[in-house]
Amino acid sequence: xxxxxxxxxxxxxxxxxxxxxxxxxxxxxxxxxxxxxxxxxxxxxxxxxxxxxxxxxxxxxxxxxxxxxxxxxxxxxxxxxxxxxxxxxxxxxxxxxxxxxxxxxxxxxxxxxxxxxxxxxxxxxxxxxxxxxxxxxxxxxxxxxxxxxxxxxxxxxxxxxxxxxxxxxxxxxxxxxxxxxxxxxxxxxxxxxxxxxxx
Amino acid sequence: xxxxxxxxxxxxxxxxxxxxxxxxxxxxxxxxxxxxxxxxxxxxxxxxxxxxxxxxxxxxxxxxxxxxxxxxxxxxxxxxxxxxxxxxxxxxxxxxxxxxxxxxxxxxxxxxxxxxxxxxxxxxxxxxxxxxxxxxxxxxxxxxxxxxxxxxxxxxxxxxxxxxxxxxxxxxxxxxxxxxxxxxxxxxxxxxxxxxxxx
Amino acid sequence: xxxxxxxxxxxxxxxxxxxxxxxxxxxxxxxxxxxxxxxxxxxxxxxxxxxxxxxxxxxxxxxxxxxxxxxxxxxxxxxxxxxxxxxxxxxxxxxxxxxxxxxxxxxxxxxxxxxxxxxxxxxxxxxxxxxxxxxxxxxxxxxxxxxxxxxxxxxxxxxxxxxxxxxxxxxxxxxxxxxxxxxxxxxxxxxxxxxxxxx
Amino acid sequence: xxxxxxxxxxxxxxxxxxxxxxxxxxxxxxxxxxxxxxxxxxxxxxxxxxxxxxxxxxxxxxxxxxxxxxxxxxxxxxxxxxxxxxxxxxxxxxxxxxxxxxxxxxxxxxxxxxxxxxxxxxxxxxxxxxxxxxxxxxxxxxxxxxxxxxxxxxxxxxxxxxxxxxxxxxxxxxxxxxxxxxxxxxxxxxxxxxxxxxx
DNA sequence: TATGAATGAGCATTCATTCAT
DNA sequence: CATGAATGAATGCTCATTCAT
Lengths: 199, 199, 199, 199
Prior knowledge:
Four copies of one chain form a homotetramer.
Chain A: H1 3-7, H2 16-31, H3 38-44, H4 49-55, H5 59-79, H6 87-104, H7 108-112, H8 116-119, H9 129-146, H10 156-175, H11 181-196
Helix pairs in contact in A: 2-3, 2-5, 3-4, 5-6, 6-11, 9-10, 10-11
The structure holds a DNA duplex.
């Protein structure tokens, strides 16, 4: 009530974009792209639905922004996993980071990995999330091969896609609570390490 | 009017359901679920759009029927692969069958594997295609483990999902023409065999 | 009630397009383009608003069709006026036909002559109604000049526009009931004849 | 804070109303009434869009003010034309003034003469621009008739509307650059003079 | 069995206007 | 005076589905 007190809530309440983002994420995860109306997002954020269009040109852009945010968030989680040295450690660290993210943001990856054809039969999402993910695994495989840690006769691109797909699918099942997290990391680490390692 | 008369036009033209199925498949593959209207399917089949509802209660049922047909078709392709004895042979045979099917029906798997949330936020597809596929791989892993061909410490369900996901993702990329079919079968066979085999 | 009776109402009731056209005309005349919603037109026609889009791709097309119908209708009225020989007679006949049409369809010309910028800031109506009208008067002036009936030093295009504008404006006022029809035809006939005639 | 201090920034920059007026005119001319949003006007004027409502109660009022300004501006142009004595001179002077204004403010007349129904299906614009214009011509005709310069058997109101319409329509075409200005004044002066003069 | 005109709930989006700062 | 985030009624249009023929 005094001038002094007013200093404290520097950011009194999250601004509308922040709230829209949170609501968009929540609803895209819960209901999927097609079952979520811009109006629902705005209402969930406690805003009039005109406000939605103050921040996004259209619904598609909002979804794409959600995907991009998820991508960056996940990258932050995965970043420290890349510092590991040994292949097996790197795989384990990556899987752990991945499932940590999944736990922290249940369903987000599943929603964000939605095939772009679902959103827009024509449009071109810069690089579909899964593809960029596959590329990262391909690089990991390539690097390891150069270091002699990995069987050299693999085509890294193919293996990259295979790994990305395996993780996506197990992740989806995990997010439906069908599979035990700990076991999953353990099994997949051993599975991938065994498949990849040099000898 | 008599049975005799009916013999003549032995099989003039495929009946309407058959034609609807073909058109539905074509359009679901080309455009995806949401961008395909019942009307488009009927028109593509050369039928009035009321006829669509003579054969399907609604659009969702039509899509589900399409998925189910694809599942059965694929199973027929995969059937003889199960007769192989050795793990590696079975894996190679399965992959070959899978990609043969993909070649014969480009895009069908991709479309049929559409996440059910895309179709219907609430509804429960009996068993999602990918899940049933994962189960089959889980069984293969379980069987092989019993025979001592496979590392016994894997949880077959987890590994089943991982394999299904890997195949789905590589299959999608293949259907976009990004990866070479032959190399893919070779790489994946070696990758999976190495990951699975006992020692 | 008998089969015989059923032959009589060959066209039982006007089909939906006919009714939409009538309602569109009525509402465009009464309220103008912007204050008329496709839904209003359909409702006025006793149809669901989806039906509107069975017949027109959009509201603009419906308006343009209305304008075109009016143009053709008016042309039919004007047709016999062209058979007259002497300039003064032709002018008088044209004016009479014009105001007959205006009486038969009050407000239609006013609405149909709506500047295209009002409908669509960008779009290009083939030939705006008033312009095509101006061209007809330009031709009349040109013909008369060749026959020596008219002062030859006029630029027919300019004069054509001037006459079209004069008739449009007087027609608008007439349709608001401000000016007496008979007097108007008489005054304008004399005015135009005097302005045009050779000597 | 004192009157003295206020003298210094004599007229730093046009005040906001002036700038709004200029932007409103520009945009109403370029895009028409319906395609111009209050927000566009304010932004074009370099002002926040709340400011618009400090000066006008609503968009309609702004448009009406634009029309009124144009009317007064044009009157100033036409004023000296009224001082001419002979009918033909007065007509020529008026036309010249009119087209001078059109050149100085291209498109303004066209926009300002927008039929009031376009702005507001119900509302009553005090006196539509074209009507007041027609009245002025009617007065000119009446005056000339009293002086014996003009054929007395015309109804001045009808002729006034006819002339106003003719000038409007030719003006529109001129503003689209279809007709030559000089020729237009010459042709119309002769046309009107011939039509009006006593004998 | 086949048709396609008709339907209207529903959707994405716009825009004139308000009001707290 | 000035601002611009916020609003929500309103709009043009789509599409899964029905039903009279």
